[in-house]
Amino acid sequence: MIFNLIISMFVMLFGLVYKWLEQNVITYILNFVKGFEQALVMLTVITFLLITIYIIIKHVKRMPKSYVIEIVDVFGNKVFVEGMRYIFSRYDVAKSYAEYYYGLYGKQYKFRVSGRNRILDPLNKGLSVPSNDKASVISRHDDEGS
To answer: Which domain holds residue 5?
Structure first.
């Protein structure tokens, strides 16, 4: 009988402590965690934006600083024609000039636009600069047959 009384008192005390903890402590802890949930979402969004900006800046830094029109004669030798402009800062301008030069000298030369990391000086032949592997060749052999 005394054992049942002690057990029932313990259960009642545990119930009161549990209700007090639920009403006063757990509610505040859950609200605090919900605030962290919003902060976690915001942190994820900010991290995503920073990674995107990093990738864009890294891609822009890899772009060539200048574009060069490489001139190749009918024998496959690279040549330098006096009076032609061949260094450009934008790809679309270089491609436009290459097409223009092809219209003038189409049967004598082929014109290829390639990106360079440094601006070249045609008089300094010792300077070796890696060219862009994805150079576009401006020639209209397909258009001439039809």
So the answer is: 1-62
From 16, 39, 62, the end of a domain falls on: 62
108 to each of 76, 77, 80, 86, 142, how far by Cα in Å? Answer: 11, 12, 13, 17, 17
- pTM higher than 0.70 for the full model? no
Q: 25: Cβ–Cβ under 8 A, 6 or more apart, which residues?
A: none
Strand ranges inside 17-74, DSSP E? 66-73
Burial label, 5 (beta-carbon count in 10 A; 0-12, 13-18, 19+) = exposed
Query: Tens of pLDDT along 86-138?
Result: 888 888 999 999 999 999 887 888 888 988 876 555 545 444 444 444 444 45
pLDDT digits (tens, 9 = 90+) for 26-56: 888 888 888 788 888 999 999 999 999 999 9
CA 21 to CA 27: how far, in whole Å? 8
With residue 110 as reference, give the H or E element that holds it: strand 109-116
Tokens of 132: 């862009």
